Amino acid sequence: MALRACGLIIFRRRLIPKVDNTAIEFLLLQASNGIHHWTPPKGHVEPGESDLQTALRETQEEAGIDAGQLTIIEGFRKELNYVAWEKPKTVIYWLAEVKDYDVEVRLSREHQAYRWLGLDEACQLAQFKDMKAVLQEGHQFLCSMAA
Q1: What is the CA radius of gyration of the chain?
Q2: What positions does the domain Nudix hydrolase occupy?
Q3: How does DSSP classify residue 73?
Q4: pLDDT tens digits for 15-69?
């Protein structure tokens, strides 16, 4: 059976968008262990939790951002399936916008750094093909909503 994890692709919009549609910035966290990879906040589902409850709890634990500081974007849910530590893993992501552009990020010990990044920079830091793809799909979804 695959390990199951859930997370939020957190983003904010610059107050003054640039002409090239780089107004969207994604929050990525750098892991403290392993290869120090960059991902959105995510974590394993605990007994009795729904997937979305897990994503919200993990965001609060890993980035210090509470559910009340976020707006979940309807219509976007992506499932990634891959092998991690020689075990199959499923991760489900939703898009969530911070209500305050200057929201304070408070990292847990699981992470050593965070960055707000435009799509191209976020994809450069995201080392895994699946993560890059979900960031691109999320960005495309958000841009299509604005059109």
Answers
A1: 14
A2: 2-139
A3: E
A4: 765 555 558 999 999 999 878 889 999 999 999 999 999 999 999 999 999 999 9
| DSSP, residue by residue, 83-112 | EETTEEEEEEEEEEEESSTTPPP---TTEE
Assign 129 a pLDDT band (cuts: 50, 70, 90): very high
The domain in which residue 79 lies consists of 3-146
Phi, psi of 104 (to 5 degrees): -80, 130
Residue of 1, 2, 11 whose CA lies nearest to 93: 11
Give the strand pairing for 87-98 and 70-84. antiparallel
Do the Cβ atoms of 11 and 98 come closer than 8 Å? yes
User: Under a CB-based contact definition with an 8 Å cutoff, are residues 4 and 44 in contact?
Assistant: yes
The CATH number for 49's domain is: 3.90.79.10
Q: How far is CA 110 from CA 10, 57, 85, 106, 133, in A?
A: 17, 14, 17, 11, 24
**Number of domains observed in the structure of the chain:** 1
Helix or strand holding residue 63 (H, E)? helix 51-63
